[in-house]
Write a structure and sequence with these properties.
The protein is of the alpha/beta class and about 260 residues long. The protein has 8 helices and 7 strands. A hairpin with a 4-residue loop joins strand 6 and strand 7 (about 210-215). The longest helix has 18 residues, at about 120-135. The relative contact order is 0.17.
């Protein structure tokens, strides 16, 4: 069932702990929080060389803009909320911070009621929770359409895989006046330019795995570059906030820490 606009707004406001309702003290710099799925998430040593694009994003941002990567493997816009992960972000986000929201990969899983959302109803409803929650804290929400998978037809054409979800997010961004990073369109165009064989060097293809969804270091760096470029193009960030957009980023900069218990 689709939530009403009032229900969405009330739910978002309720997610903010009452003890944090007062305006927090000013802080130096800003934080960009990422709410998303495995394509953006921090990866650890046991998953290497799999790399989330959120791990590479700091290479393109000024050092005064901190990235807090809350993206988590396997989450949808719904399960991220249901598990309290949005509430955790809203409990620490401050005025002037950014909340970058990328979901769709797992929202598409119609056989999993814990994660599935319908593009034009419950998907948009859940995205509004992030938008309203960030705005209630004086932070700026930013919507990002989901990065594309690696899929080609027999003629070598890169194929979209996210159905109506990108269109639903674009429509919501217009309705709510939220900045939109169209990473789905940009990544699809990038995979088309690279072609069938070269894209394999951007995804997590190893001797034992042919993964057409997740990235290795070159792929994560390429997608992070798209994200940073879109943050600049949409004027979410100023030129002084970004760096190295045209520079080669060494893959050796990517590291995988040991997972903590």
């Amino acid at each position: 069932m689709s939530l009403s606009r009032r229900q969405v707004t009330v739910a978002a406001l309720a997610a903010v702990p009452l003890t944090l309702a007062a305006a927090p003290a000013p802080k130096a710099g800003r934080t960009l929080y990422i709410a998303g799925d495995s394509t953006a998430a921090q990866k650890y040593a046991d998953a290497a060389p799999e790399t989330g694009w959120g791990m590479a994003l700091p290479f393109f941002l000024h050092k005064d803009l901190t990235v807090a990567n809350h993206a988590m493997n396997g989450r949808s816009s719904k399960s991220f909320v249901d598990e309290g992960r949005l509430t955790a972000i809203l409990s620490v986000i401050r005025p002037g911070d950014l909340l970058l929201i990328q979901f769709a990969h797992n929202d598409e899983k119609a056989t999993d009621p814990a994660r599935y959302t319908e593009p034009w109803t419950t998907y948009q409803d859940h995205l509004r929770l992030y938008v309203e929650g960030a705005r209630a804290r004086g932070a700026r929400p930013v919507l990002a359409t989901s990065v594309e998978r690696r899929r080609f037809d027999a003629a070598g054409n890169a194929l979209p895989t996210h159905g109506d979800y990108p269109a639903a997010m674009r429509a919501l961004a217009r309705e709510e006046g939220v900045a939109l990073l169209d990473i789905q369109a940009l990544s699809l165009a990038l995979w088309q330019r690279l072609g069938v064989e070269e894209t394999k060097t951007y995804f997590n293809w190893t001797a034992t795995e042919q993964d057409n969804t997740h990235y290795n270091p070159p792929g994560a760096i390429a997608v992070a570059r798209l994200v940073a470029g879109e943050l600049l193009r949409t004027r979410v960030l100023a030129p002084r906030d970004v760096r190295r957009l045209d520079d080669e980023i060494p893959t050796s900069w990517i590291t995988w820490p040991e997972a903590t218990a």
